[in-house]
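ARCHIVE RECORD
Type: protein–small molecule complex
Small molecule: GDP-alpha-D-glucose
Source of inputs: curated submission
Record status: active
Notes field left blank by submitter.
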Amino acid sequence: MPPHSGRLIIISYRLPFHIENKKLVQNSGGLVSAMFSYAKGLYKNKEGTENNSKILWFGISEDTREELKHVSEKANQNYFDLIPIHLSKEEDGFYEGFCNNQIWPLFHYFTHLVDFSKEDYKLYKNANESISKYVSNFLNPNDTIWIHDYHFLLLPKLLRNFSSSLEIGFFLHIPFPSYEIFKQFPRIWREELLLGVLGADLIGFHIFDYMQHFSQCVLQFIDSHVEGNWVSTTEGLTRLGAFPIGIDAQAFEQDYLSSKVKIEEKAIQKAIANKRLMFSVDRLDYTKGIFERLLAIEHFFNKYPEYKNEVVFNMVVVPSRDHIPSYQKMRLDIESQVGRINGLFASLDWTPITYQYKHLNRNELIALYALSDLALITPIRDGMNLVAKEFIASQPPHEPGVLILSEMAGTASELREALTINPNDLDEIADTIKTALELSPTEKHSLWSNLKERIHSYDVFVWANDFLHALHNAAKMQKESRSDSLVGKILENIKTNYLNAEKRLFLLDYDGTLSPFHPDPQKAIPSPQVYEVLSRLLSDSYNEVVIISGRNHEFLERWFGELSVHLVAEHGASHKIKGSEWHHYWNQNDQWKEPYQNIMREFVKRCPGSFIEEKKASLVWHYRKADPIYGKEIAKTLLKKLSHQLQNNTEFICLEGNHIVEVRPILINKGDGAKRLLKSFDIPFILAIGDDRTDEDLFAVLPSHAHTVKVGKGKSLAKYRFQNPEAVLRLLEYLVFP
Ligand code: GDG
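STRUCTURE (tokenized, with ligand):
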């Protein structure tokens, strides 16, 4: 059941049905099979309750909504309200173009097939934009939207603009490639694609590897923080998760016993005449390893001629994209291989390969699964592969078949008892076929029963429920962590407190609070908006403003020295009361830095792009400009080394901050710094805002009536939270403008 109060809306490239000869026909494909089964279960659970609303399903279709409604009613299709999306002929080119000529080959590691056409990318963006506009006409703010697959990577962010309360989930059905592969997309595309999909509250992948690849790309290519399964960017928080798609295992188990399937089985038995049967079924596609599989079969009969006349390989290729010349050529190549291999080995009463280029009906497919001694599922790369699971679900328990599975399919990480092969290793495939054919019934049963248990325990219903529950929780977290924790009544109360107070104190951190981070700290300079807000604050004589930062006093003097503000530099090592001179509290010579500097220098050598910043009262190793993943790893090691060096030292500490590791005197911290400057906090209105660990020292010393705000993620003593510096400026503007 969708756990949210709104409706469930699915968006996928195609609708699950189309109309043929005025009848409703279910489209084939993994997603359709999965969602259709899920919806059936959902509908069953909902029957008789008032919450009997249908799932809205948007997808590209040539049929009209009225026609679909009409034939759905006639066919008793009560699960989905099918809403066709009609794109102009030009817009529809996004599918053949960017989707299938770029994302599909790149994400499946067929990089030589990617054409990187700019026009295609533009069409992809246009299509996503026009679909988001169309879909948003139907949305209510508390709907749950589940977007499927690589056709719509930009859609989550586009729909998020419609309403921030929407729950948006995205599921990727194909692999997500390693960042070295994804890097081949031009910079601007990869940034837009990542930020686009990060508009979702939850992004689901089939397996952990794809999720890892995605978080590495996020870290490498966009300004972000990744903590465990959570990614935080300018778009907000997004949870990542691995949800291996399942099948309706029970339905397959039941169907293979049906009389219709038995009729099909008889026809197959007659055709293979007591031979043992191997099979494969795939859509025509270069990722499926069809051609390589044929070569492996040839190798098998060459290496193990005793199986000639004994085994038949039934290969079904389902027509797909065959209007495209390269697919037509692929088909011809496959067919000529089949002909060549059959010519090589066939005898009067035995043909090694029976080949069908067609779409099987469900009964034919299940009969084939049930009768086969072994399934040869050998894709070169595959997001998951449902055929492997369907094969397991359709086996007769008294004599189950054996699954030979490519280690390149997502399913391989789940179906551990399958006999795995590398699809490029013909020798291994041939040997594994032999092993499978020679397994004893007990061995086969033992392998199969474990696999069966897995596909029953994590079936399509568990998969969809898991995803939707995780989505609901992620959306809840997202809402809680939003800057908008300071909204409505709370905000009004703060403003009232502000207006009533005759003395007010603002304690404002700089980096990450008044100004966003920049890879080069010297370039993170105050924007005109910052000056405007500050001068507005300072124009009211009741207001005292303190800029309290980790920056050195030269930086603060340069950018704020002209203003009538108090300045605290280097976390309290120096301060300047407005209108007077700088006072340096920390006056020790620099000798204390030497051992730490030596350690840090080693790390600068090891981590290109990192550098040391030397301040009066601290030493900071920055890695914002370094490789983010490597930098983070190295930072941990540096922290360990420094902590070791600082063992038993009561004067200095080392800390990890935002892309930095720092060593500084224990006595120097923002809390003590503010106390030294102000002497007392006996002020009726106090607002303190900061983004990192060092600001916690300030929050800790403030009286309980102070309004404290943390910017960004992470634990904090602050009462409220904002997501970014823009929200800080908005709050200050709200207070000072009437
Ligand atoms: C993606 C990913 C991922 C196939 N031939 C016939 C037929 N089928 C049905 C099977 C199965 C489905 O189509 C194919 O499943 P795949 O897993 O191969 O999925 P894809 O649609 O290629 O696409 C893939 C999947 O999404 C799910 O996330 O596993 O990795 O590429 O259900 O039964 N059905 C019938 N006749 C056929 O000839 N009736």
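CURATOR ANNOTATION: Residues 28-31, 33, 173-174, 245, 281, 283, 318, 359-362, 365, 382-387, 390 surround GDP-alpha-D-glucose (CB under 6 Å).
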